[in-house]
Design brief:
- The structure is a homotetramer.
- By secondary structure, chain A is an alpha/beta fold.
- The first copy, chain A, has one domain: TIM Barrel, CATH 3.20.20.
- An eight-stranded parallel sheet of chain A has the order 2-1-8-7-6-5-4-3.
- In chain A, helix 5 links the parallel strand 5 and strand 6.
């Protein structure tokens, strides 16, 4: 395996659907092309914002094919693997790698509660099913488990588990993780965190939905962080924050999809029964995008 | 649609898998036959205990086909429909009905949180996709939503929404539901509840995992309740309770599958990363089954 | 210690306050007298409904004195001991016993989370500080701990720990407790439970706020249960349930105090910042009381 | 009221007790003197670490008197007001101001859940009972409420509500608060946050338990932040973090008290049933303090 090092801005690309819930492949391809032209460092289809938890494997497979083909090697593609069973996740991970991605993001949704030992075994099995780098994902708000420091210590022993995307919003937990295993695993910020603070803790990038809407501003923030221009980064971060406030108040996928529609990408709405953005929410998102120079109309 | 009225003991039938996670169709058919011989009033494949949340549609389709074929009209089959999207649930519900079931059990797992309005719209859409009776299912411990009384008032307006299986364990909530909409919707007990108390509140049956292991005892309990022999029912209920205590302590599917293995049905274990029953748990389940006369060996 | 056995209806007597938050002793005495005339089997001041968690020791001491004096030995008084520290609880328990109560109800509110071992040590210390019987109290909705079966097994070894009031609303948990330690500890129902089902499990009484408003109906329910007239009890229980529905929807203390005001006892409102009953809530409580024959006006 | 502006390092001073739970006044005075000599900018008795939630008013009054007398005007004293009722909090706030403090920290523990409107009314009443500045406190992990942005917008209208100490650990929430009302209210960091990030967001100080143990290092961190020497601050913050990891793992008050004992202040242990630090925890705290140069022995 040739060593690749993932870093920078990786939009959590949305999955466009028509009214019947069918994938709009053309729109997805256009969005990929658009984001690459804007300069993003990589793409992450099938994350939370990509509604990875809501799709069956044939749809997910098609999403990956479209994104890989549209990206055409210009930037790395790290695709989400999101399955409740270890058998299913191992299968999807191996298939996903065969489709030409550069890495996988391993997401574990839950129905019945599980223990730390089972969490560790699940992610180990996925890592061993592929040769590409694996990004661990955790979101304690949407699942019944979270990585303990001890579980992470076990998992970083796997050669290709190299990244962690923590969506807890608890920056102290992240600092504790960096303190404990920061030399073995690299951190991507989620939008539940304040990206510039994750960058200060050594975070290598931001893997998130907002970058679909404000790719250039996200890249600028990342570059300021790389150059340790913290005062400027802080100033920009403050300007970008109202978008996160809107995401927290309304649903993430609903906000990003509504914003992309405003920007001219007919990506549709999140699959029901997910929340849709109401007219008040749309006005708020529109105003924020306009204030950030992310709406030309 | 000829009116059917579902009542009595409906085992939440487990889904047997081999080590690779593939369905063991023969074992499933044998189990169906065994339970019908024991006198159960109906069968519910693909509930929680049936690991319905963990399976893809082709596997679920095959489970339904095997159960319907093995049941061969001897008892009603109410199959679980378990999908995170409304599009998916509507599709699976319609397909499930085509496979010859007598009713469906509508389960809604969640990833992102949803609102009451969306919950109502989801179940309405399912009900309208089929002509058979629909059993509503809620388990606030495993999902981020629960039916409010107001949501139930909306849903009972649908002609074929006729049953509710509440797995909250909160008997007071159930009494409030009976008080508000008890004339419009019938209640099935879950094992999170004490079945005989649900029977006392007017519950029409028990739809649950334990009945896979102790079908005869469950039937007896139900019959005592039908005849309002409450003292005897209470006495039997107390004898059966240690099985529920084990289920609460260990995982439900793991206990039922381990017990069925002891009874001679090689159903395997729950799909990882679900909890497996450890040797201590097996001893406890074995002792309980033996005490209840549910192990011949 | 002369053996006493507590059973029956023990109203969780409210604490009447004026607008400045001062105790209205006369009203409290009148209420005691009224409830005893109605036939209650005992009285429990300073429980949850009695706002025991909100009062300082001098006020609590005065409440106990007034209740003991007004009861004048006609019925047992079991007073709440509610303190965050073991030193404080031990002191208050000993003082409370000196004031002439017949038993104490030990409530443990929490600020920082605590472990099972500390829970056990706390209640042991209280039990050893008094010679009267102790009622254990748990409400996992309002505290960060709950009794495990293992903790209860330790606590029932204390000679004077004889009763448990579980306010979890989880009747299955209660059945598991009865199964494990039911021969060593007696159960009182809380209003979070359906009292007649707790009676069926062997519960010896109902210790709760609603009995302040409907003492006669509560006594009738208890007597039906003693005589195992389950069908009649069930019928009465259903009639009484709307009061519980109101309590769940609004705050318990607010409902009971508003109802008592309607019945002619100027007990005031719960101490702010606790929720007050709004005009809609008052109408609902008034209608329920009228339907139950508990309002003469 | 002469304008005072609070900023810098305010140790959450512990409350020393003997084995019987009685205040050790001499030790408390010594600790005040020690911390002032170390250069702290102010003192906060009766916060979480000060076990303010566990003490009765006479003890709290004595704590304030001792701290005010020992501080002797050298640094501001902001004392915690911690009472479940509005009547009680208003009384204690007014009394506390009379004892000569420079500001109060308003903490609202809960038993029954309360609504946003009641939260707002409670803090307003406290603010109006005093003329000194008020620090709002929230810890959603230990109470059933949290400040919404809307509630804060109401509260900053009060002339003397000028500071907020948020102990949620959710830095994104804090950034949203700064975005919404940052011009009207100043932020103090809690140890649940990473202080240097709160400083970057404009935070004016750190009000927390760890500063009892490492006052000089805390002051240095604050000074680096004032001078925007972010790289150095980040480096120091990383060195200090293991102390926070220990606090998260064990109890806060237990860690600080154990560390102070090691430093020669016989402050005793947290009042039972709070968690005590076990021997393993003591070794960890000792090693961390030694590594930070905070143990001379």
């Amino acid at each position: 395996m040739k060593e690749k090092f993932f870093s920078g801005i990786y939009p959590y690309i949305v999955t466009p659907f028509n009214d019947k819930g069918h994938l709009k492949e053309g729109v997805l391809g256009d969005l990929v092309d658009h984001l690459i032209h804007k300069g993003v460092h990589g793409l992450t289809p099938l994350g939370s914002t990509g509604e990875g938890a809501y799709l069956d494997w044939p749809t997910k497979r098609r999403v990956i094919e479209v994104v890989v083909e549209a990206a055409n090697g210009r930037v790395p593609v790290i695709a989400g693997v999101n399955n409740l069973t270890t058998h299913g996740a191992v299968y999807e991970a191996a298939e996903t790698e065969q489709l030409g991605v550069d890495g996988i993001l391993a997401v574990l949704p839950t129905y019945f509660p599980i223990s730390d030992q089972q969490v560790a075994a699940h992610f180990k099995a996925i890592a061993r099913a592929v040769s590409c780098p694996v990004v661990l994902y955790t979101n304690p708000k949407f699942a019944t488990w979270d990585f303990t420091i001890d579980t992470l210590k076990v998992l970083v022993e796997e050669n290709n588990i190299r990244y962690l995307k923590d969506a807890s919003g608890n920056i102290g937990k992240l600092m504790s993780i960096v303190t404990a295993v920061g030399d073995r695993i690299k951190i991507f910020s989620a939008s539940a965190h304040i990206p510039m603070f994750v960058f200060m803790l050594g975070g290598v990038g931001w893997m998130a939905g907002p970058a679909c809407l404000i790719p250039e501003q996200s890249i600028t923030l990342y570059e300021m962080a790389c150059q340790k221009r913290w005062e400027e980064a802080l100033n920009l971060q403050k300007q970008l924050w109202p978008l996160n406030v809107a995401f927290q108040r309304y649903s993430l996928a609903a906000c990003v999809k509504a914003g992309l529609e405003m920007q001219g990408f007919p990506v549709g709405v999140p699959l029901p029964p997910q929340k849709q953005l109401d007219s008040e929410g749309k006005k708020i998102v529109e105003k924020i995008l306009r204030d950030l120079g992310a709406l030309n109309i």
